[in-house]
């Protein structure tokens, strides 16, 4: 038997990278996994590969109505979700002189606003059910101040503060809340930087693999009901900050 047998788990940003790796880990642990992302073809292929207990919904999480639509879809098809892993995110960096302000609102919408909306909606359903687990994927960038990264890092810092406050608010309700903060991990999140001709962060050091982060997520979810693994940072062994 798997450690997550009978659990219904939702993973956002599941079409690639950390989200895909997390979906694989949770499915292997016995969970019924619902994949959420924009790219329907990738979701369908992954769902087919993972097997009959896997569902998916192609959805744009930048849409303010998306979290409610996702919760409604999962509940109607599978029941009240036991787990939600908020992984979807985008990364754009740049100096004061060259940052494209057209990228600002999508970053806010996906990296922060959609997570907040989803956390509240899923938490309400989980509280009513008497149990649940919310895991937000942050970044070590939330605690690193560097030129050109203030928007991304600032949004992740806000997400961490929100996550901590939500954990405190839900203490004793049966709903646990935690976050996993990855270090430099080789995923598609760096593609916009590469497209702009900027060296992506995973070119500087041997980076983490998405499955390294998925293993940390699974560790959080496998804790006994009396324990809440509230914050895990996973650095590349070559990161020295």
Give me some keywords for this one.
7 strands; alpha/beta; single chain; 15% strand; seven-stranded parallel β-sheet; 241 residues
Please provide a written account of the structure:
By secondary structure, this protein is of the alpha/beta class. It contains 7 helices and 7 strands. The protein has helices at residues 17-28, 40-50, 66-78, 104-129, 150-170, 191-195, 210-221; strands at 8-12, 32-37, 55-58, 83-86, 132-137, 175-182, 231-234. The chain has a 7-stranded parallel beta sheet with strand order 3-2-1-4-5-6-7, sandwiched between helices. Strand 1, helix 1 and strand 2 form a beta-alpha-beta unit. Helix 1 packs across helix 7. It is globular, with a radius of gyration of 17 Å. The chain starts with 7 loop residues before the first strand and ends in a 7-residue tail after the last strand. The mean pLDDT is 93.
Chain-wise SSE layout:
Blueprint: E1 8-12, H1 17-28, E2 32-37, H2 40-50, E3 55-58, H3 66-78, E4 83-86, H4 104-129, E5 132-137, H5 150-170, E6 175-182, H6 191-195, H7 210-221, E7 231-234
Parallel strand pairs: 1-2, 1-4, 2-3, 4-5, 5-6, 6-7
Helix pairs in contact: 1-7, 3-4, 4-5
Order of helices and strands: EHEHEHEHEHEHHE
**Coarse structural class:** alpha/beta
Distance between the termini: 40 Å
Q: Cα-atom Rg, whole angstroms?
A: 17 Å
Please estimate the helix content: 40-55%
- Uncertain regions spanning at least 5 consecutive residues: none
Note the overall shape: globular
Query: What's the pLDDT, averaged over the residues?
Result: 93
Biggest beta-sheet profile: 7 strands, parallel
Number of helical stretches of at least 4 residues: 7
Biggest sheet: strand arrangement: 3-2-1-4-5-6-7
Strand content: 15-25%
Number of DSSP-assigned strands: 7
């Amino acid at each position: 038997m798997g450690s997550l047998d009978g659990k219904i788990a939702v993973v956002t940003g599941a079409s690639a990278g950390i989200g895909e790796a997390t979906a694989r880990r949770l499915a292997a642990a016995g969970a019924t996994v619902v994949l959420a992302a924009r790219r329907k073809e990738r979701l369908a292929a992954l769902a087919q590969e993972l097997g009959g207990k896997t569902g998916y919904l192609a959805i744009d999480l930048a849409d303010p109505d998306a979290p409610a639509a996702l919760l409604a879809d999962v509940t109607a098809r599978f029941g009240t979700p036991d787990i939600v892993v908020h992984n979807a995110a985008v990364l754009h960096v740049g100096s004061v002189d060259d940052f494209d302000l057209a990228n600002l609102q999508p970053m806010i919408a996906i990296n922060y606003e959609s997570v907040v909306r989803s956390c509240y909606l899923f938490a309400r359903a989980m509280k009513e059910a008497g149990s649940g687990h919310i895991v937000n994927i942050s970044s070590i960038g939330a605690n690193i101040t560097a030129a050109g990264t203030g928007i991304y890092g600032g949004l992740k810092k806000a997400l961490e503060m929100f996550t901590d406050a939500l954990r405190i608010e839900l203490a004793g309700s049966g709903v646990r809340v935690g976050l996993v903060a990855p270090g430099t991990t080789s995923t598609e999140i760096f593609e916009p930087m590469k497209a702009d001709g900027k060296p992506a962060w995973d070119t500087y050091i041997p980076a983490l693999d998405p499955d390294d982060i998925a293993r940390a997520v699974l560790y959080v979810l496998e804790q006994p009901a009396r324990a809440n693994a509230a914050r895990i940072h996973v650095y590349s062994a070559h990161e020295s900050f």
